[in-house]
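Assess this one:
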Amino acid sequence: MTRWLPLLLLTAATTASADPRAPILSAARIKADVKTLSADDFHGRGPTQPGEAITLAFLEKRFAALGLRPAGDAGYRQTVPLLRWTRETARFDLSLGGKTQALRPGVEIAASSRIVGTTTLDRAGVVFVGYGVVEPRLGYDPYRGVDVRGKVVVALAGDPDVEAGRDLGFGGRASSPAARTKLAEAQKHGAAAFFQIHDTFPSSYPWLQLANSDAVPGYALDTGSVPPAFGIRGTLRNDIGVALLRQGGLDYAAAKRAAQRADFRGVALQGVALSADVRTGLDRAVSHNIVGILPGTDPAAGSILYGAHWDAYGENAFDPPADRIRNGAVDNGTGTATVLEIARAFAAAPRLRRSVVFALWTAEEKGLLGATWYADHPALPLATAAAQFNLDPHVVLGRTRDLELIGVGRTPLEQDLARVAAAQGLRIVPEENTEAGWYYRSDHYAFAQKGVPGVYFRAGRDLVRGGAAAGERERARYNAECYHQTCDAFKPGWDMTGAAQEGSVAYALGREIAAGATWPTWNDTEPFAAERAKSDAARR
């Protein structure tokens, strides 16, 4: 409950006007860049695909025209080495009560393996581990007294209190970092495979999004060695998960309720077995970030950082022949174009004390890989990065009366954000779909883990034309139909004013920080505060 209080106070204190002011940035220029970046000529901007070279050339040209200083290892390009796992063949057979059903990849199951060669399961037993979250502080350990070695572990989506109606210690409805440790826990306990049962509510995306991406290769940063491999991992379509629980004597809804309790222990599902053969190949690949700097007037004053991921899902042979390009107009053509417009505004204005870094990341869709690589190999020290802003993505809604803050109650910067937004006629509202865990799913998180403060926000839902109901309908439609799909394509009738509003607030707040001498902080209760404290001496 305490996490919401600061935002509720500042929202009440900074109620914006009913008619927001015209944005500082140009919606027309943002729209033109989104149109270019999402054209078929860019082949969906897939990292390591032909569209990467075209995208990089365009972004380099724009950075050069703005006079940004190159800050990569080869001009503006920062090399990001990658490992790439490609699923070559796959077969899955699920046995329920002696009856065997073939599970079709991309239909009933989405799965892969990072063991090079063939991974085989031969009628492996299945253990249901509830939410699969181990949290000793709260007494949760569904593996206690349960042997999952060599077996298939199946877990629910989310964490124990996502649907409990109360906070059990994981943050209530909001997704917690613990929800991202399930695969590691299964591996630690010796499981041969791990599957999550898909559920749209906590996941925030429909089964279609997973099914259509089933054959997409998996990536990781190449740090010189191949990390220890886990066997088969993936997601089961909801009805398949419900059926295997039923065979094991469990009702899906009742199993959710039972798994909310700290004393829940894993259950071996009698009469349920899985057989599989998955053949995987591994190779090395290279992608690139684009990084430029607008130097400040005081080299010792530090910097601020603006970032957005340029990558989308590319052009794929496994998509239907009628349209094999996932253009990524919204995700994240809008964020990339907005960073370009913010950079233009900074370049056209007098220089400030602090340097401003502009970075366009690769492989966000592969696991925040470009941003993570940069965070480990920054152009300017992160210890003296005063703040970071992430633009990802802007669902095209037109002009709004609000901005949605992702991750509430983390930093005093939220109060500055509310003040700057109010000056532009906008109010700050908390994110609605906290169960989706957006805070952990975009590039700013790589920098939060390094201790760099920031605020991640995007256009809200309260449309000047249509109100909140219309905004919610459009966002829900995009998430259900176009998120990571081929229909995420540019529309000539788009109104990019909302993106310009979002970018204008990020620009104005960034100018304040870049012109000043103060160092934004985290709230004391944030785990990122301890990481930031390690570099306190650099900011004295």
The CA atoms of residues 109 and 329 lie 28 Å apart. The longest strand covers residues 267-294. The chain has two domains: 5-67+295-539, 85-282.
